[in-house]
Amino acid sequence: MNEWHVVRVPDPERWGTLPPEGVLGVQDLPAAVARIGLRPGDPVFVAPDGTVDRDLLDFVRSHAFRNLERETKRNYATDIRPLLTFLSSRRVPWRRATRQDLADYRHWRCRAAENPGRIGGTKWDREASAFTKLFRWAKVYPLPVDVSRREDRAADSVSSRVLWLTPRTWGLWSDIGLRGHTRAGLPTAGWESRTELRNTSFVQLLLSSGLRRQEGGALLTFELPSQRLRFGRYCHGHVAAALTRAKQSRVFYASVDAVGQVEAYVESERAWAVQRAQAAGRYEKLSMMRLVTKATRGLRPRIEWVDADGVVGGQELGRLDWRERQWLFIEGPDGPEPAWLWLTEQGLPMVPDRWNGVFRGANQRCEEVLLTEEERQISREFRLAEVRGKSPYATPHAARHSYALYMLVVLNQLMESRYGLTAADRRDFALLFGDPWWLVKTLLGHADVEITKRHYLAPVAHLHLESILAAAETDDDQEQQVEDLDGLFARLARESEGIQDVDRLLEAGS
Question: Which helix (H) or strand (E) holds 80?
Answer without folding.
Answer: helix 70-89
